[in-house]
Amino acid sequence: MNLVSDNIAPAHQAVLGALARANSGPARPYGHDEVNARVESMLSEVFEREVAAFLVTTGTAANALSLAQMTPPWGAVIGHEEAHVMHDECGAPEFFTNGAKVVGAPGLDGKLTPESLGSLLGRDFWTPPTHVAPKALTLSQATEAGTVYRAGEVAALAEIAREKGLRVHMDGARFANAVASSGRTPAELTWKAGVEALSFGFTKNGAMAAEAIVLFAPDLVENLAERRKRGGHTWSKGRFVAAQIEALLEGGLWLDLARRANASAAKLALGLEARGLKLAFPVEANEVFVWLPRPLHEALQAQGAAYYVWTSRSVAPARAGRDGETMARLIASFATEDREIDAFISAVGAAPGRTKKASRSPGTPLF
């Protein structure tokens, strides 16, 4: 019953096979190999246009390098106040931008809204030269609340950013899960909606360590190779990073794995609601946030269930927990098995004082 994170999942067998094949002989170093070339071509097919791709091995590097291309040291990066880049990257965006500020805005269910973004950008403290100037907007897809921005929501936020002179970045650590649940194409969720750079995550979805900076704006390409090298994120044997991504893109495996993880999360959410528990956020990808009464939380921990205890200010009032309840974050991966979901749900049902209720759909329907 280990639902701590999708980071705990193993690398997919297709990835391991691709690494073995990449290891079969010599190749040009520093990303000038045939595998890297094929991956860039495959990414262009995925996004229905020519893109530039710079491969790295961590999402932190992908985010920080992308934002550094957009933001000078005297600038500001705007994002949701609970976004990963705000709290979970140890100041990497500030470091790689050489000191730009990262500023958060509120929003229910982990999402920025045109109102919250417009309100922040409309305030009177962005006056040069004594204050930083907003230069980039970053959107998490899926969000830290496990919700997914619709294409129209991305477009509305990007339009505000464009009017204010901000570049638009998307942190796609779980981009695959967002695409799988939305029913929209990768292009529709990114550049067609105004996104100029994407941190395309593969590590949480079957890779060993592989992420792609995908650039849709040609002017952002200049000197990114040098920035990546200077930051220590250029692999001399870059074919081993590219091979992982090639294996996941081949035949749409990346989407198959994301659908599998999303389905496990949906099954888990349905089972928890059927046992009378309240969800803190709609379940739209592979994350489930549920309120657990303290005795139930302690009983699950005693039985070996593993998950993170979570806090959030973006819970809608109608989904707020009660006194004595703990919010648990449960994440399913492509490797999560039905027996793990069944065991967790059974453990909830078997806890003292639990009663079953009629099943209903978890949160808002997928779209």
UniProtKB/TrEMBL annotation:
<comment type="function">
    <text>Catalyzes the cleavage of L-allo-threonine and L-threonine to glycine and acetaldehyde.</text>
</comment>
<dbReference type="InterPro" id="IPR001597">
    <property type="entry name" value="ArAA_b-elim_lyase/Thr_aldolase"/>
</dbReference>
<keyword id="KW-0456">Lyase</keyword>
<protein>
    <recommendedName>
        <fullName>L-threonine aldolase</fullName>
        <ecNumber>4.1.2.48</ecNumber>
    </recommendedName>
</protein>
<dbReference type="GO" id="GO:0008732">
    <property type="term" value="F:L-allo-threonine aldolase activity"/>
</dbReference>
<dbReference type="InterPro" id="IPR015424">
    <property type="entry name" value="PyrdxlP-dep_Trfase"/>
</dbReference>
<dbReference type="InterPro" id="IPR015421">
    <property type="entry name" value="PyrdxlP-dep_Trfase_major"/>
</dbReference>
<keyword id="KW-0663">Pyridoxal phosphate</keyword>
<dbReference type="Pfam" id="PF01212">
    <property type="entry name" value="Beta_elim_lyase"/>
</dbReference>
<dbReference type="InterPro" id="IPR026273">
    <property type="entry name" value="Low_specificity_L-TA_bact"/>
</dbReference>
<comment type="subunit">
    <text>Homotetramer.</text>
</comment>
<dbReference type="GO" id="GO:0006567">
    <property type="term" value="P:L-threonine catabolic process"/>
</dbReference>
<dbReference type="InterPro" id="IPR015422">
    <property type="entry name" value="PyrdxlP-dep_Trfase_small"/>
</dbReference>
<feature type="domain" description="Aromatic amino acid beta-eliminating lyase/threonine aldolase">
    <location>
        <begin position="2"/>
        <end position="292"/>
    </location>
</feature>
<comment type="similarity">
    <text>Belongs to the threonine aldolase family.</text>
</comment>
